[in-house]
Amino acid sequence: RTTTFRFLNRCLRNRTIPMASSIFTHCHYSSSPSSLAFRLHRHPFHVPPTCLRFSFLHSSPASSHVDPLAAMVTESSAKVIDGKAVAKQIRDEITAEVSKMREAIGVIPGLAVILVGDRKDSATYVRNKKKACESVGINSLEANLPEDSTEEEVLNYISGYNEDPSVHGILVQLPLPSHMNEQNILNAVRIEKDVDGFHPLNIGRLAMRGREPLFVPCTPKGCIELLHRYSVSIKGKRAVVIGRSNIVGMPAALLLQREDATVSVVHSRTSNPEEMTRQADIIIAAVGQANMVKGSWIKPGAVIIDVGINPVEDASSPRGYKLVGDVCYEEAMKVASAVTPVPGGVGPMTIAMLLQNTLISAKRMHNFE
Ligand SMILES: NC(=O)C1=CN([C@@H]2O[C@H](COP(=O)(O)OP(=O)(O)OC[C@H]3O[C@@H](n4cnc5c(N)ncnc54)[C@H](OP(=O)(O)O)[C@@H]3O)[C@@H](O)[C@H]2O)C=CC1
Ligand SMILES: Nc1nc(=O)c2c([nH]1)NC[C@@H]1CN(c3ccc(C(=O)N[C@@H](CCC(=O)O)C(=O)O)cc3)C=[N+]21
To answer: What cellular-component terms does GO give this entry (predicted)?
Structure first.
């Protein structure tokens, strides 16, 4: 530790950047900013070059009037919540359970995905879901319908899958083309197969005390799972959810409340979202605005779950764009105690939770375990 201090102090004096050195130094502590239990930690890819600015070189409110050593400690110090690794662990658990079930009762869980239209991002997500199913031994069925399909055609596919005993989960990829009524379509999925958890009856049960939904929506479930697996306590904490969509923000707020957090929801009409957000011990951001949540929005030591997936132009990437979250990652790393990266945070967890919901469904239908 002493060596690290000396090294970082030297860097500070010289205003050089330790990450640029070959020794992968990343100043890291694991609980709160007041903790001095920091240690050397290897972060091979999570820290983009812009993270390497020192706090005292610019004036973010969270880092002004601190002495250089403290500035150094608060610099790039949050823990990275590695959703990709946790998702892998969960997929391994699912693989084992799927094979146990197949051996015991000869049932293989099946997931049917309905994709309407040719949005590139939707096609990518569906492809990823299919790959993930294969990786754990879940059967996947796919219906690709043209953009100009009628609502009735989609409903026919849903009825077919509702009746098909080899299908335990049905997912209709959103968004649907604008000429379709999303409500009618989501309502048509049999609730016992609603692995997305979007059916109003499932959401209603999620909202009510003493009731249990058959399925919890995958993205919010993935967020909570990350908090659990990183031992972040939720009970009694102040949580702010930014965004109130049916698929992420609203169910995320309901789940946090079920976990005994005190929850506020920030949306596009909230006056002073920054001040609201700064109260939070836990922030879930699901807005769809690249880098909206700045360092100054974050209470020191808060835990941040960044759901946003926003493409931004990037000439240096082979695709011509890169994905960033709703939270300014570099700034959050300096103020928060733990942050999910984008990509590699919530996204992989969403898919892992979909597989988990499909397994839960198959088990329930066959009274297994
Ligand atoms: N990682 C994953 O697995 C997933 C990621 N996503 C990503 O999460 C993000 C959100 O998705 P989704 O919930 O579907 O998006 P929606 O567009 O449906 O909802 C966005 C929400 O954010 C609110 N909002 C928009 N602008 C602002 C603002 N300036 N200040 C405060 N609130 C604002 C909106 O408020 P209002 O209600 O007032 O309009 C709305 O409630 C997207 O980037 C999406 O790609 C989505 C699903 C899964
Ligand atoms: N019925 C329905 N259910 C959904 O769950 C649903 C949906 N419709 N429509 C679209 C959103 C979006 N969504 C994502 C899932 C995984 C990643 C994901 O795996 N992201 C990777 C990056 C992927 C990449 O590099 O392109 C990551 O964050 O690391 C992202 C987004 C699910 N959604």
So the answer is: cytosol
Among 74, 96, 118, which residue terminates a domain?
74
Q: Is the pLDDT of residue 351 over 60?
A: yes
Q: What is the pLDDT of residue 324?
A: 98
The candidate with the shortest Cα–Cα distance to 332, out of 288, 289, 281, 291, is: 291
Query: Which residues approach ligand 1 with their CB closer than 6 A?
Result: 219, 242-245, 247-249, 266-269, 273, 286-289, 307-310, 346-347, 350
Q: Is residue 289 located within the same domain as residue 234?
A: yes
Position 31 scores a pLDDT of: 37
What pLDDT score does 11 carry?
41
Q: Determine which residue's CA is closest to atom 22 belonging to ligand 2.
A: 343
Asked whether residue 21 carries a pLDDT value surpassing 70, the answer given is no
93: in domain: no
User: What's the first-to-final CA gap in the chain, in angstroms?
Assistant: 49
Give 336 Cα–ligand 2 centroid separation in angstroms: 25
Number of domains in the chain: 3
CA distance 200 to 30: 39
Q: What is the pLDDT of residue 194?
A: 98
Confirm whether 86 is domain-assigned.
no
Residue 54 CA to residue 68 CA, distance in Å, equals 9
What is the DSSP code string of 178-227? TTS-HHHHHHHS-GGG-TT--SHHHHHHHHSTT---S---HHHHHHHHHH
Q: Compute the distance from residue 303 Cα to the ligand 1 centre, in Å.
A: 19
Question: Do 220 and 340 fall into the same domain?
Answer: yes
What does the pLDDT average to over 206-210? 96
- Residue 342 counted as domain residue: yes
DSSP strand pairing (27-29 vs 38-40): antiparallel
Active site residues: 129, 173, 196
